[in-house]
Design goal:
This protein is mainly α. It is built from nine helices and no strands.
């Protein structure tokens, strides 16, 4: 069964899949560890999150901070729900792979066994599942951040104030980091979905996705705004 499945894939399929995985990993590493000469939006936002928590210490009342944090948690909740639904949709499609085969044959492609399409959809499902776990953990970290913020004294002269604010900032940064990882996983899941069109579809989808992800971090208008301090 496995040998039959592998024989259904061309060498270009393996090249395209390898490129997808490498692009996903390399893009993530570059964004989180950018060169000093050209930092990413993700790294720039870390400083703003630290400044936020420093300002939070003396803000009276902290309704504004609580509202922002609540909005961030709502975003993680929405993305978790959407990703879970997407995983269910991919699994449902994999369970009806014969229909997908008939659709692809309609545009001139040769018929393939159901396991062939299920293997391709499995890559999409795995990327989406990874995103689900990252969003769930991000939501939990934002919850931790809320507790630490609540435990931070309002008096800047209090010796506990700034250290607690720094703790809240670092937890907030970790929450955002996991959220961004989940988003990137969804982006590349869309690229993996293009594999149903063949290896060239996956190669083109991966290239376009990598370009979009990197341009938003290193060549976007929002980055220019953040640097204009």
């Amino acid at each position: 069964m496995i040998s039959l499945l592998l024989s259904s894939f061309a060498w270009l399929d393996l090249v395209a899949l390898t490129l997808l995985i490498l692009s996903w990993l390399v893009c993530g590493w570059l964004i989180e560890h950018p060169p000093k000469a050209r930092t990413s939006v993700t790294v720039l936002m870390r400083d703003y999150r630290r400044e936020w928590m420093t300002e939070m210490v003396t803000r009276q009342p902290r309704i504004f901070d609580a509202t922002i944090l609540s909005s961030l948690r709502q975003g993680t909740t929405f993305m978790t729900s959407a990703s879970i639904i997407a995983v269910g949709g991919v699994l449902a499609l994999a369970g009806n792979a014969e229909r997908l085969d008939s659709i692809v044959m309609g545009v001139g492609a040769e018929g393939q066994p159901a396991a062939f399409w299920q293997a391709k959809l499995a890559v999409v499902a795995l990327l989406l599942t990874y995103a689900v776990f990252k969003f769930i953990w991000s939501n939990r970290l934002f919850g931790y951040c809320a507790v630490v913020m609540a435990a931070t004294p309002n008096d800047k002269a209090d010796p506990r104030a700034l250290p607690r604010a720094a703790q809240a900032a670092e937890i907030n940064i970790r929450a955002a980091l996991n959220f961004n990882r989940g988003l990137r996983s969804i982006y590349f899941a869309f690229a993996a979905l293009a594999w149903v069109l063949g290896p060239w579809g996956l190669l083109i989808g991966t290239a376009l996705t990598a370009r979009a992800v990197l341009s938003r971090e290193f060549a976007s208008t929002s980055r220019s705004v953040l640097l204009d301090d």
